Amino acid sequence: MAEKTTDARFLSSAADRCVMCGLCLPHCPTYRLCNRESESPRGRIALIRALASGELPPTPRLMEHLDHCLVCRACERACPAEVPYGELIDTARALLAQEGRAEDPSSGPDRLLNDVTRLQRWRPLLRFYQGSGIQRMARALRAPEKMGVGLLERLLPPLPRNPRWHRHYPATGNQRGRVALFTGCTGRALDGATLQAAIRILSLLGYSVTLPDTQTCCGALHLHAGAPEDARRLAIANLAAFENEEVDAVIHVTSGCGIHLMEYPRLPGLTRTERQRAKRFAKKVFEISQFIETSTWPAALDPLPLKSTAAVHIPCSLQQPGHHPEYTFSLLRRIPDLELTPLPDNALCCGAAGDYLLRHPDTARALLTPKLDALEALQAPLLITANIGCALHFRAALQEEKRPVEVLHPVTLLARQLPEPTDLPSRGQAHKMRGTPQ
Q1: Across 28-42, 66-80, 367-381, 413-427, least confident range
Q2: How many Å apart are CA 144 and CA 3, to the nearest integer?
Q3: Which of 164, 248, 352, 377 could in theory staple to 393 by disulfide, Cβ–Cβ 3.0 to 4.6 A?
Q4: pTM score, two decimals?
């Protein structure tokens, strides 16, 4: 396992499991766009097999075909031969990176991580930029595009006043458990409202919430960019951060990060001890909607009615094994009068895919356009999604088209509808809903 990233034998053996049946083709977003074999899972597997056997040299063109993959893994879910496509593409990219033919590290995930870190420091200045009228003027003059930051500037969500984050949040009423909240590298900078909503709901359900100080980026972008050692380093840092907390569960609000946290035991390069630690950690990881929907709810904690319609987008990462998208719907059905409609073609990636929307903006927008058209047909004023990258992608496009659709995480909408508790029943008076996660 530790040699997977550099061992061509793994690539050959995994690729040989593909029987070239083509059942993956209709599930692949890039193949559906261009109808080219080289942009399909089957075509990429053939390229990887040729690369591993030495029939094809690691050329920039080959890297381009592999880099166009979103790693949405829809093909993996459809594959009757259970080809581990996600591991295949990550391993091939790592092999190419070792050959010295990967993209410039200055434009990779480390740069994005550094940008997010700087964003947190620049929040006051960026809030002034957004609220003072300078942003409107800058956009009218196309200044962000001329400075080479047009796409990043459009993706920047409205930044409210940054809350003062605490390390520990007590439970409301009787404490029934203790959880840790994974914030990742973007949560506090770009998605503070979702984190605050999660903390509030968990607290109302009787859980104290801890935000470990030393947690960091999950490492998914690094793994997908062919940097497994960097992904391993970040994983070890997170294991250390959360192992020090005596908690019942580790909760995440971003499905892209969450599926990677759950797959820490599969990371290449881990020692046996590290892999055991990763397995113990992964068993505690829960997506926020699943955790709170399967927890005990106080009888008096009834959401207020909301007469509206919400289109529900299910991110690719929430469709992976171990995640349960149905909890997004069942959680939102707690809100009386709210009409829920699945966004058509939820099985297809929206094009965000981590930093894909930055590396391949034209393809990302082409993949998003049918979803925007479907949303327009639904005439829903709310769009619900459980992944920050998807939310930023949708929100930027909707704002650009001046469409009044609000993009929210499911727990953010639910928290809005919860009344302030004045006399919550004790734990003994609470009623059980569908069983508590074990």
Answers
A1: 413-427
A2: 43
A3: 352
A4: 0.87
- Say which CATH topology domain 8-98 has: Fumarate Reductase Iron-sulfur Protein; Chain B, domain 2 (1.10.1060)
Which pLDDT value is given to residue 115? 56
pLDDT score at 1: 36
Residue-wise DSSP of 382-400 = EEE-S-HHHHHHHHHHHHH
Domain boundaries for CATH 1.10.1060.10 within the chain: 8-98
Cα-based distances in Å from 435 to 323, 329, 408, 413, 431: 16, 17, 27, 23, 10
Nearest in space to 264 (alpha carbons), one of 250, 278, 252, 276: 278
| pLDDT 10s digits, 126-172 | 777 777 778 778 777 788 777 777 677 777 777 777 778 899 999 99
Stated length of the chain: 438
Nearest to 314 by CA among 342, 351, 286: 342
3-class secondary-structure state, position 341: strand
Give the type of residue at 341.
Answer: T
Give the DSSP per-residue string, 121-154.
HHHHHHHHHHHSSHHHHHHHTTHHHHTT-HHHHH
Element (H, E) at 413: helix 410-417
Return the percentage of the chain with pLDDT > 90, whole number. 64
Q: Six-digit token pair at 352?
A: 């965000």
CA distance 236 to 269: 11
**Other CB atoms within 10 A of residue 118 CB:** 11
Residue 109 has pLDDT above 50, yes or no: yes
Number of H helices, E strands in the chain: 22, 9
Q: Which pLDDT value is given to residue 110?
A: 59
Give the residue range(s) of CATH 1.20.1050.140 domains in the chain. 168-293
User: What does CATH list as the number for 308-417?
Assistant: 3.40.50
CA separation for the pair 240, 237 (Å, rounded):
5
Distance, in Å, from the CA atom of 9 to the CA atom of 15, rounded to the nearest integer, reads 10
Give CA–CA dist 103/63, Å, rounded. Answer: 9
pLDDT, average across residues 387-397:
94
Torsion of CA 72, 370, 79, 225, to 10 degrees: -20
Write out the E strands in 219-298. 249-252, 285-287
